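Objective 1b of the project was to move from sequence-level analysis to a structural picture of ligand recognition. The entry below was assembled by the postdoctoral researcher (A.K.) and checked by the PI before modelling. It contains the amino acid sequence of the target and the SMILES of the bound compound, 1,6-di-O-phosphono-beta-D-fructofuranose.
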Amino acid sequence: MIYTITANPAIDYVLHLDHMRLGAVNRVPQADLLAGGKGINVSQILNQLNVANTALGFVGGDVGKILEKQLVTKAINDHFTRIAAQTRINVKIKAGEETELNAAGPHITATEKAAFFQELAAIQPGDVVVISGSLPASLDKDFYNEIIARVQHVGADFAIDTTGAQLLESLPKHPLVVKPNHHELADLFHMTFKDDADLIAHGQDLLAKGAQHVLVSMAGAGAYLITPDHVYHSTAPKGTVKNSVGAGDSMLAGFVGTFTQHRDAVEAFRYGLACGSATAFSEDIADRAAIDALLPAIQITTVN
Ligand SMILES: Nc1ncnc2c1ncn2[C@@H]1O[C@H](COP(=O)(O)OP(=O)(O)O)[C@@H](O)[C@H]1O
Ligand SMILES: O=P(O)(O)OC[C@H]1O[C@](O)(COP(=O)(O)O)[C@@H](O)[C@@H]1O
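Corresponding predicted holo structure:
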């Protein structure tokens, strides 16, 4: 079983308009309310790949009710902890370029946090827990470390998609995979990469610090997979980008879902690329048909 954790889910309010004028009234011809939050996006793709999974996290208030309905529509195996405070709304403005406004998130009480850990107690040896996204402001920074400690105690594995110190602290605990995008990887080292060799060297540093696999995504430029034996690269397939929100989550889901089935990192990379790009070419998170249509176009090369 794969468990996804979305500590800070959201309703994504996605606004499509030709131009955005700051400081003026903008009329918006297309507005969509979508279930958001990185772990929920991962669960959606796992469902499309027929990989059994359970979604954990916190949900509450009237916004939470909208989210709960979407979880039912999307057949997400909802084991979210119900909270008193309001789930956040994140605003995504698609006006030529994409601007995202991600809110801080609700207050979680100590009782609610304890109820979450009761749900997490279901994990078994060999399960994989996918931890992704930001923490609501009221959860202390050690929340992910607490989860990882419990995962390791039962002999399960974990994957983590977060940034900064949280990502660095997780590495000595040997995550199955980490997936920074190239900007996040550069930020980790407080630098700008000179070239791809520089990027690869810093990806390999995450491996040396303990990660089992490192995926470095580069949006429309594709991605690198770094393993202890080889470095692999693939360009992204070509297509019309409709909404790239969730592309990174989809890539992580494709990788973890496939790796847990076949234990083959290159095949997992192939699915990760297809899932990421399929989501970028869809209004919402990709469906199976969109993923399958892209698989033949993925060409992975071994860099070294
Ligand atoms: N514009 C795009 N065209 C084609 N594929 C894309 C595009 N944007 C994202 N993808 C696919 O999704 C993957 C993850 O996207 P990326 O934007 O790097 O992640 P994140 O959402 O975490 O920043 C990419 O490696 C690529 O396979
Ligand atoms: O938890 P964070 O970092 O605020 O991110 C939440 C946002 O991330 C998303 O899951 C999208 O993630 P990516 O575009 O990075 O794949 C949105 O659905 C959501 O609004």
